[in-house]
Write a structure and sequence with these properties.
This protein is α+β, with helices and mostly antiparallel strands and 285 residues long. The chain is built from 8 helices and 10 strands. The protein has helices at residues 60-77, 99-114, 121-131, 176-183, 193-201, 218-224, 228-237, 261-273; strands at residues 2-19, 25-45, 48-52, 82-88, 143-148, 152-155, 162-167, 244-245, 252-257, 278-282. It is globular. Bound molecules: cytidine-5'-monophosphate. Residues 23-25, 27, 132-134, 149-150, 177-178, 181 line the site of cytidine-5'-monophosphate. Cytidine-5'-monophosphate is lined by residues 23-25, 27, 132-134, 149-150, 177-178, 181.
Length: 285
Amino acid sequence: MIEQTAYAKINLSLEVLGKRTDGYHDLISVMQMVDLHDTLTFAPCDTIEVECQESALAAEAEANLVLRSARLLRDRAGVSEGARIRLEKRIPVAAGLAGGSSDAAATLRGLCELWSVAVPGPELASMAASIGSDVPFFLDGPTALVEGRGERVTRLPALSAGWAVLVCSQYNLADKTRRLYSSLTRDDMTEGAVTWQLIRTLGSGEFPPPGLYFNSFERVAYQTFEGLEGVRRQVLRAGGADPHLSGSGPTLYILFPLAEANRAYRLHAALQAEGLSSYLTRTVA
Ligand code: C5P
């Protein structure tokens, strides 16, 4: 049996540059893995089957993405075997943490191993991109520059090790990513300057300074996710000085250097005590 870890990501920056003619948007983003993860196991089987112990409805989209990834790889690699795939969910769904995309990438990796197929890197990356814009990043990581609609991934010097407190509010918004992209206006879009500045600070041994965590979705996320502004204020009151939005939200993250474990833990515990869904994670180095 083969096991794969599917990490969540946060966006240190996410600048949407403009709308394309194919319905997608060009972006430039620095993505960072955190150690909150799903676990996938792969065992031999005649057919492709996906089991998920999480309440079926909540994780249905992710299980479907896993199934699609498995079928795509099987068809492209000309494999006749199947697989029994078990998906253990921990990453909240539709949260801006790309859990489903990470599951998809883990499926490609796990099945290449189970079926002993060697797919060249660029071909695997193009399969990943056809499954979803965030999937290629998860074949690489843990810190990377992501461009195009998400398919151009360049590894970056790792962010210094630290803690990320994730505050994940629950909203039931069908087609969340598409809806948030389509709510963006020209004023939300930028030219990538902040991200390039952010990149220059990586690998310095310290976290980038506060002004470099730009996210184009900030305005539309606070508008769309009712109550998120209240959550942000709760985070500030509990001592989370600088909450940032991950992806198109609604997850907010607060970073702490490695030496500030106590502060990170205290914030996490305070948010939990207030009934918020908080996760204390480490950045993946
Ligand atoms: O690629 P993925 O299926 O995750 O994208 C979901 C939706 O988000 C797309 O259909 C598109 O509307 C929007 N999107 C976008 N630009 C991107 C990524 C996603 O407009 N770079």
